[in-house]
Write a structure and sequence with these properties.
The chain is an alpha/beta fold and 259 residues long. It contains nine helices and eleven strands. The protein binds adenosine-5'-triphosphate and magnesium ion (MG).
Length: 259
């Protein structure tokens, strides 16, 4: 069987804030249909990694490639110092279409209805005809158990429902990869379950996902691969079976504390 296409490649990514290294040589390859969870202690650089991957943060070094298209790569400047050079605005716009991002704190537009939150970007960014955008949104709302909420405003929804709307909004742009940064950490346990269920269903449909999470049981169930980060490096990565049977005392301690 031929191997699945590589959708995302991060090579030797480096990022510092105020001279302090936050990502120190991170490499990560994600193939079509893979679910990769990123775990690790607070401050280890998980969000920074996601922000670099999704072009929200400027990398200092390394290379970022989506579907074979280089978003940025390291080149020496006139002084011979290495820095990251990004693709043109037009190319980055194209690359941005290949991924979606779901944040911890939903980030819905408070003054837009659920429907408008979902169709806004497809209509204005992707130029999808209105009727088609609405149909797509209706399908997604049904899939995520929110059909009766289309006309509600975010403040009228529970946190779990709001997070499902933000997942629908990301899916409406038909991304090839979906990133999640702690999608349930703002939710109580009951609402967490309903959001995790949606992500598990997406995994069953072979949606490619990179998920930063503290939910160890969930990571174990849903992931093809788990990456453990600490101090800006990948300390260990492997299948859930491998990670949960690790001999590395630091990884073991972390997992056992949260499991
Ligand atoms: N914009 C920024 N300016 C300065 N320092 C930053 C910035 N963003 C992140 N950092 C620092 O980088 C380090 C890694 O932060 P990051 O948010 O990536 O960690 P994390 O693994 O996502 O943690 P958590 O589990 O708490 O979300 C931290 O020390 C943080 O203070
Ligand atoms: Mg974080």
């Amino acid at each position: 069987m031929s191997e699945k296409a590589v959708l995302l490649e991060m090579n030797h990514v480096k990022k510092s804030f105020d001279g302090k290294g936050v990502l120190e040589d991170i490499s990560l390859k994600v193939r079509e249909g893979e679910v990769v969870s990123v775990i690790g202690p607070s401050g280890s650089g998980k969000s920074t990694l996601l922000r670099c991957a999704t072009l929200l943060e400027h990398m200092d070094g390394g290379e970022l490639i989506y579907l074979g298209q280089t978003a940025c790569s390291e080149k020496p400047d006139k002084q011979g110092k290495s820095r990251c050079v990004y693709a043109s605005k037009a190319e980055l716009k194209e690359i941005r279409k290949s991924f979606g991002l779901v944040f911890q704190s939903f980030h819905l537009f408070p003054h837009y209805s659920v429907m408008k939150n979902i169709i806004d970007a497809p209509i204005h960014v992707d130029k999808v005809p209105h009727g088609e955008a609405v149909e797509r949104a209706e399908r997604l709302l049904a899939q995520l158990g929110l059909s009766d909420k289309a006309d509600n405003f975010p403040y009228q929804l529970s946190g779990g429902q709001q997070q499902r709307v933000s997942i629908a909004r990301a899916l409406a742009l038909q991304p090839k990869i979906l990133f999640f940064d702690e999608p349930t950490s703002a939710l109580d346990p009951e609402l967490t379950v309903e959001v995790l269920k949606v992500i598990k269903e997406l995994a069953k449909e072979h949606m490619t996902m990179i998920i930063v999470t503290h939910e160890m049981q969930f990571a174990r169930e849903v992931s093809d691969r788990i990456v453990f980060m600490e101090h800006g490096v990948i300390v260990e990565e492997g299948s859930p079976e491998e990670l949960f049977a690790t001999e590395n005392p630091r990884v073991k301690e972390f997992i056992n504390k949260l499991y």
